[in-house]
Write a structure and sequence with these properties.
Helix content: 25-40%
Shape: globular
Structural class: alpha/beta
Oligomer: single chain
Number of helices: 6
CATH class: Alpha Beta
Strand content: 15-25%
Order of helices and strands: EEEHEHEHEHEHH
């Protein structure tokens, strides 16, 4: 019989209660995820104070990654950093409409996780490419995705 698990400290999504998850295993505390003995690389999260961004920050920090939250609302980003990232988080103001400025904020990051609205995907990709870091986003509109796919070769060459 499945048991119901609740995450130890789930992200709070604007007052919404976390859903219970059906799971066939007994409840247990999960250790932080580690893939190697090395210090995990720094990951930047664009839109890290939003509903999806908080969850990404939580998961990355739990896995031991240092996280840089890039957000237009610096106060909200600081709240997320305190609640979910602890000492592993740093906060930077970022304007996702300016790829050159965003690329400067990505210096030292191994990857950019774009949790901002899809209309910012192309500019965020340009910034990641300029900064020489990996890029992933949470999806978007079909036509935007097609434009993004045209940049695949640029990332492979980088």
């Amino acid at each position: 019989m499945p048991v119901l698990l609740r995450p130890a400290r789930p992200p709070v999504l604007d007052g919404a209660r976390p859903r219970e998850i059906a799971c066939p295993a007994p409840p247990m505390a999960l250790p932080p995820i580690r893939s190697s003995r090395e210090q995990p690389p720094l990951v930047a999260v664009l839109g890290g104070a939003g509903a999806m961004g908080r969850a990404v920050v939580f998961d990355l920090a739990r896995a031991g990654h240092p996280v840089r939250i890039l957000e237009s609302d610096r106060a909200a980003a600081r709240r997320v950093a305190r609640r979910y990232g602890g000492r592993a988080c740093e906060v930077e103001s970022a304007d996702a409409m300016d790829p050159a400025a965003l690329a400067l904020k990505l210096q030292g990051a191994a990857a950019l996780v774009n949790c901002a609205p899809y209309r910012l995907n192309l500019g965020a990709m340009d910034a990641a490419l300029r900064a020489g870091c990996h890029y992933v986003d949470l999806g978007g509109l079909f036509h935007t995705t097609r434009k993004q796919l045209r940049r695949h070769a640029d990332f492979r060459r980088a």
